[in-house]
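EI: anyone free to look at a 458-residue chain?
SC: sure, send it
EI:
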Amino acid sequence: MGILNPAARQYSRHELTQGSIGLGMTTKHPKGIPFIIANEVAERFSYYGMKAILVVFMTTMLLDSSGVAAPMPEEEATFWYHVFGMGNYLVPAFGAVVADVLWGKYRTIILLSLVYCAGHAALAIDDTRMGLAIGLVLIAIGSGGIKPCVSAHLGDQYREREPGALSQGYALFYLGINVGACLSTIATPLLLERYGPRAAFGVPGAFMALATVVFWIGRRRYVVVAPTPWRLYVAELCKGQRRRGVWTLALLYVSLSPFWALFDQTGSSWILQAERMHREFYIPLVGSVTILPSQLQALNPVLILVLAPLCGWIAYPWLAARGWLSDQGKLVVGMIIAAASFGIVAFAQQRIAAGEVVSVGWQAAAYLILTLAEVMVSITALELAYVHAPAVSKSFVTSFYLLSVALGNGVTAALTKLLASLACPPDTPLYFALFSAMALVSAVPVAWSMKRLSALKA
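SC: here you go
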């Protein structure tokens, strides 16, 4: 078979909507899962490795068209960082419809992965604003376009598995994301410091090429859901109960967008804060070690690798056995403790503004709390998108989850511009305190949306 034609079992729309699948269920993981997760590890290495050094590159190493140093001011770099984040999470709606209606998930992932690779190449070759713009646009199209398809494609593999296997599959998928993110956020800042932007952007590009090849190798082991004709696709989405469910999910993800307005600042305002903190530590047998500001982002995936299994396989089952666990509770508590993490960062910024020497340990504590919030919010929201989506539009509804991230980054970009004009830039305590308050208030509409979603399911 050709590169775009996987030789795997395909389900038709009739099988999906009439319930003719799911017989002889098993708890074993499907054969294609190792390839999907390995692809995700390499792709996330490429994405987070590139993203980890963007603000540092833009504020210290960017060149103009004549090759002269022309770095961006911090406020401008923060703004464009979040505009890129917003664009990267707006494109998923386009990629999802293309996958559900025209190409199918497998072909969409393969073709847009090639666009993704081209974006990395542009960043590695050209150190100017033009190269930056071309590279980030192509990466937004490629990365954004495949995002809803990969997670929905993983869910498709579990159509003949017990329901609990799907949750385990998404937990493994999320661990894979964070293995790639952890390795890259440690490695690429070192590459940037020692070898410059070409090597630092080139290595993530090589990992994206590897991700594409690995995904292609697994093509004969995937369950493949055939695309649905547009007319039937729209008809399924517009059926009464399904339409109400889709709208309720959309409202939920709008309510969750403040979480992402906070979370994605670990790659912008938190890095800028870390540059003003004491980052030197003494390690026995090693000596004095100084952590680079952008390397602190590695704390998040490292903590995910600990907290996700701890919650998923120990804390959640224990709470569920006592009737103390619900998806609504996880999301609401997650929003509250995300607000608390920004409270810590605001306190640290207050001490920096007072001229004190502040340890980066304060930010490490904030990372611990924010990562616990991520485990509660992000994994839960991703699974809700797949479980509650109509069978023929899994990618499209999953894109709502990603559009929530886009909206959050858009809010951060807009507020950063507004607050800077009001003498409240990202290096002020009030900046962080306002974002903390926004997340705290948003817990109310999150709880209301989840209550409505639960009522529809009942």
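EI: Confidence is low (pLDDT under 50) at residues 16-25.
SC: 👍
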